[in-house]
Each structure stands twice: as C-alpha cells, then as structure tokens.
Amino acid sequence: MQFTQECELHKLNLKGKIGMLNRTILGLALSVTFAACCIALNAQVSSQSNTLAVSISMQTTQVPIGQSPVVLLTIKNLTDNYASLPPDLYRVHVVGKNGEPPTTLFQRQITQQLRPGETDILRGGVTVDLPPSETKTDKFNLLYFYDLNVPGKYSVYLDVLDSSGKRKWLRTNTVQFVMLR
C-alpha cells in the first residue's frame, strides 16, 4: 500500500515537472516566433528572387455577396535545393474603389494592427520544405482577411516572404475580382 502511494506521489511530481517543461518550451517557441515575425516585417520588398517565383489567380472572378472569393497562390522553387516556406509569412492586400475594405480581426492580428482591446494570436505552424523545381499552390479565402460585403470591383495581391538569403518580400501579380449583388 505504501509503495502504491509513493508511486502516485512520484507520478504527480513528474506531471508537475512535465507541465513546467511544456510551459517553458511554449514560452521559448513564442519568443522565437515573435522574433522571426519582427525580422520578417523588416525584410525588403522585391518583385524578383533567385529562389522563388510567386503568382496568384482567382478561383472565380465574379463572386456573389455572401460567398467567398478565393485566391490561389502558386509558389515555385527555382533552385536545386529544398526551399523552406515558413507558415503565415505572407501579407494579403485588397483594394476597392474606396481604398482598403474593412479588415477582419484575423487580418489585424497578422499585420499586428490591433484595435484597443483586441488580443493577438499565437503564431506558429509547420515550415514546409518545397523540393527543387517543384510548385505548391495554397488557397486564401479573402473573407478571412476583409469584409467584402460591398458590391464592386476589387484588386488583390500578396507579399510572400522568401526566407532564404536576404529575406525579401516577393510581390505577386495583381488580379481583379467583382463582388456581385
């Protein structure tokens, strides 16, 4: 009986140490992610790269109000080496006839332009290694980033971080879409 109680005490002590270790690892991961985001925000913007080619297209160019306009981002690795694509290091830009539409909380969290009282998000995710000469396509639902409830013509482009070498922002082409009544 005493041996069982001692085992239970050791298990509880071990759980406490594991919990403290998990909190320490989480804190370290958040610090590293925050530093990476700060570095990324200070990176240069360029339309050329020796390592990546980026472009976008619309899934459909005419979208009824209430439905989601979707942008397809294509990234091609131009090198003979694997290209690391960090998560969430992109910027989505939409402009309508009256300028930038209202942003969502998610967009403000990504761009770190929070309003008073809004909470920041935990950043992170999995870095994807794109094989040499391969292409990857991602979908971006623009309703996650902007309130697009006003009918009219809009333009969209993305900035994508090329994390190799000088850490340049690569700007995609600009495409148009229409939000219909």
How would you summarize the topology of this molecule?
Elements: H1 2-41, E1 44-46, E2 52-58, E3 62-64, E4 70-77, E5 83-85, E6 90-96, H2 105-111, E7 128-130, E8 135-141, E9 152-162, E10 168-171, E11 175-180
Short description:
The protein has 181 residues and is an alpha+beta fold.
Key traits:
Immunoglobulin-like; 6-stranded mixed β-sheet; 3-stranded antiparallel β-sheet; 2 helices
Low-confidence stretches: 17-44
> Treating each run of at least 4 consecutive H or I residues as one helix, how many helices?
2
Which architecture of the largest domain does the CATH hierarchy give at level 2? Sandwich
Termini Cα gap: 74 Å
Radius of gyration: 22 Å
Number of domains: 2
Give the fraction of residues assigned to helices. 25-40%
| Beta-strand proportion | 25-35%
Helix- and strand-based class?
alpha+beta
Described by strand count, sense and barrel closure, the largest sheet is:
6 strands, mixed
> Which topology of the largest domain does CATH recognise?
Immunoglobulin-like
User: Which of globular, elongated, flat, extended, rod-shaped describes the shape?
Assistant: globular
Indicate the mean pLDDT: 80
